[in-house]
Amino acid sequence: MKISYNWLKQYIQTDKTPQEISLILTDIGLEVESLEKVQPIAGGLEGLVIGKVVTCIQHPNADRLRVTTVDVGRPELLNIVCGAPNVAADQKVVVATVGTTVYPNEGEPFKINKSKIRGEASEGMICAEDEIGLGVSHDGIMVLPDDTEIGMAAKEYFKMEDDYLYEIGLTPNRADAASHLGVARDLAAYFRTNVTMPGVSAFQTQNQDLVIDVKVEDTTACPRYSSVSISGVTVKASPDWLQDKLKVIGIRPINNIVDITNYVLHDLGQPLHAFDADQIQGKQVVVKKCAEGTPFVTLDGQERKLNAEDLMICDAEKAMTIAGVYGGKNSGVTETTTNVFLESAYFNSVSIRKTAKRHGLKTDSSFRYERGTDPEITVYALKRAALLIQELAGGVISSSVSDIYPDPVKPFDVEVSYDNITRLIGVAIPAAEIKAIIESLGIKVVSENDGKLFLTVPAYKVDVTRECDITEEVLRIYGYNNVEIPSKVNASLSFTAKPDKEQTQHVIADMLTANGYLEIWCNSLTKEAYSLKPEEAVKILNPLSSDLNVMRQNLLMPALESVAYNQNRRQPDIKFYEFGKTYHLINEKYIERARLLIILSGMNQTEQWNQKSVPVSFYNIKAAVDAVIGRLGLSTYQSEEISNEDFAYGIRYYRGDKTLVSYGAATIAARKKADVDKDVFYADFDWALLLDMVKKNKIVNKEVPKYPAVRRDLSLLVDRAVTFESLKTIVFKTEKKLIKNIQVFDVYTGDKLPEGKKSYALSFTLQDEAQTLTDKQIDAVMQKIIYNLAQTAKAEIR
Q1: How confident is the model at residue 43 (pLDDT cuts 50, 70, 90)?
Q2: Is the predicted pLDDT of residue 137 greater than 80, yes or no?
Q3: What is the pLDDT of residues 631-640, one digit of tens each?
Q4: How far apart are CA 524 and CA 793, in angstroms?
Q5: Nearest 5°: CA angle at 213, between 207 and 216?
Q6: What is the pLDDT of residues 733-744, one digit of tens each?
Q7: Which phi and psi (to 5°) does residue 159 adopt?
Q8: Taking 80 as the threshold, does the pLDDT of residue 335 lie above it?
Q9: How far apart are CA 257 and CA 388, in angstroms?
Q10: Residue 574's closest CA among 429, 677, 472?
Q11: pTM for the full model?
Q12: How does strand 92-97 pair with strand 48-58?
């Protein structure tokens, strides 16, 4: 939110500098994210001066140029070559001297340098209004009145006042501060002074020639609707002061009527809408909801299908605007408008928020309505705008103020005690100061009894409804910095369950990071199209957008978006991991599951001069999985191949009916959804299950074996359907004590083998911890293994 320093000073009198005000605003809860010096127009006319053309003669080498001498209040005259057709002697003009940077309406800023133009020296530039941002005309140079003082700074002549712009990071609960008036209220509370409100006592109805009948059908969505009609207006450009106010805060001036509604919006925080009264059919305005699917063309020319819950402002025949959000194509004020119907309403914040999100519209009006506006300011804002319209566009007030407010919004009644405020803040604040702060915030003290205050909180403070809210208001005005940090710290011993979840997670994260992986954090909100089981999707009631309307059911799809984002920016080699949660709705119960995702794509390592880069493969993700499982100390589990909607191919490790991890290649369909065109391998761990298993692990220390290990190799011919895992299981069932390890060191499938067969070359490591193995013992074990492999897996020794 942008706030002007000069604008604020219209409400409060202060000698504080903009920098001091910035610190104060941050201290009282309105964090200033940036502060910059600004001018209504680019450059602020810096370096431009008023001069007088002393002589003007034809350029000897150019028909369209003139050679002039200009007096700018210096001892010497400036020689300036000028191409404007209207330049003449004795004119008072605006001059850009050498070294000045000029900011034209179009094109880039440029610096004035001493130069020669067609052989004649030029020491500056005589300016047209569009060349310095003061207007749009380029018919010739600006000619000023004869009594203009020579040498005066153009900035001073045009009353170009420097301003300072605050960018405030407004939190959603501070709807009361979404305007210059709201910010001024907080500053006034801090300074213990009053806000100076613009007067509206001059407002009066002059005739009843333009009465528009108003009817509110949905008083829940529109609790209050105020309006008035103004006839005989002249739509034109706004005066400089109004344009300057809007330009400083980044609002583009349009015309005097629209500019006034924007000015009041940012001044008071009350959105307004000005209708062309002659376009209102039947001289009737109806606030209602239209039928589902009704087409409506908005100001941007886009046709939208209305929802049955969208509140609309209609006339007797058609919808004119989406209430509080966006205007219709033909509802606004144009250059031909002569009669205006002015709306100032209070809409239900939830209704406006849903409509704005539904249509993907975000406007200054919806921003304020969504958070909650002041229901008591609608008529005041209406009169303020009407008086400004009369002042800047002429016209007469041609109706009484219509104010439909059947069920007035009541202020909040809150009871607080001095003791509770002191206890929550943690510092003893005098009761008189607490009361003074409360009253300075516009909160009325109804009564005081036995250390308690009975308060009435104005309706515009939508987030102050409880004692703790009052305490927060007191604390932010009192100052967080005034609450000292105690020198004494109290602590207590607590029992920590084993394993320490955070520490275990850090151990695995450190290991993966040390191996070149980068941790990512993806949004838990994602698009419904990513849900493999839509019936289990946890849907968001008020989604920010259609791409963030459900909670994720897996970590893969958001991570694939990260892969695509990096690969599209020439970062093709991906090694990511993420600890996160997935969300499911199963049997009407919401379930959160802790997961760990590891994802690989691109090359396994960066290009090196002494070795070739190779793409990542299934075995790279397997190595990462085995490293995690091994680091957690898990050794007893089974594995099997998988091929389902989650993986193109892969393996899962499991115990009983519980899956520890599934890993393999992402499917083409999943990659296509995220627009990833390279192979992706990933592993999906059930992190909660792994932590539960780690809890049962026991650490046992063993001595280094004293006796040597022995290796034996076997080459087996088996059916292609036989897996290494099944062979490994047979071997360990045969001999558990002496067999320490089994590895595959070669696999062969080819036309030299019988059809449907493959060859495995296995290595066996044998070791006895009590003695040195003899050849006889080793041969006996290997014969048993060969026999059982032949009987169970139909293996043939090659």
Answers
A1: confident
A2: no
A3: 998 888 888 8
A4: 47
A5: 140
A6: 998 889 999 998
A7: 55, 45
A8: yes
A9: 9
A10: 677
A11: 0.64
A12: antiparallel
What are the residues whose beta carbons fall under 8 Å from the beta carbon of 644, sequence distance 6 or more? none
Cα end-to-end distance, the chain, whole Å = 79
Q: Burial of 514 by CB count in 10 Å (0-12 exposed, 13-18 middle, 19+ buried)? A: exposed
Instruction: State pLDDT tens for residues 151-160.
Output: 999 888 887 7
Give pLDDT, residue 30: 93
Amino acid of residue 464: V
Query: Has residue 697 got a pLDDT over 80?
Result: no
b/e string for 475-512 if b means 16 or more Cβ within 10 A?
bbbbeeeeeeeeeeeeeeeeeeeebebeebbeebeebb
CA–CA dist 575, 759 (Å, integer): 34
Q: According to the model, what pLDDT value does residue 644 have?
A: 81
Burial group, residue 636, by CB count within 10 angstroms (0-12, 13-18, 19+): exposed
Give, as one character, the DSSP assignment of residue 144: B
Q: What is the DSSP letter of 667?
A: P
For 118, 268, 558, 726, the CA distances from 108, given in Å and listed in that order, are 24, 36, 41, 73
pLDDT in tens, 211-249: 999 999 999 999 999 999 999 999 999 998 898 899 889
For residues 96 and 132, the answer to whether their CB atoms sit within 8 Å is yes
Task: Retrieve residue 366's tokens.
Answer: 């919806």
Paired tokens of 40: 């209504």
Backbone dihedral angles phi then psi of residue 238, each to the nearest 5 degrees: -75, 155
- Contact assessment for residue 384 and residue 198, using Cβ atoms and an 8 Å cutoff: yes
CB–CB of 375/223 below 8 Å?
yes
* Three-state secondary structure string covering 355-408: HHHHHCCCCHHHHHHHHCCCCCCHHHHHHHHHHHHHHHHCCEECCCCEEECCCC
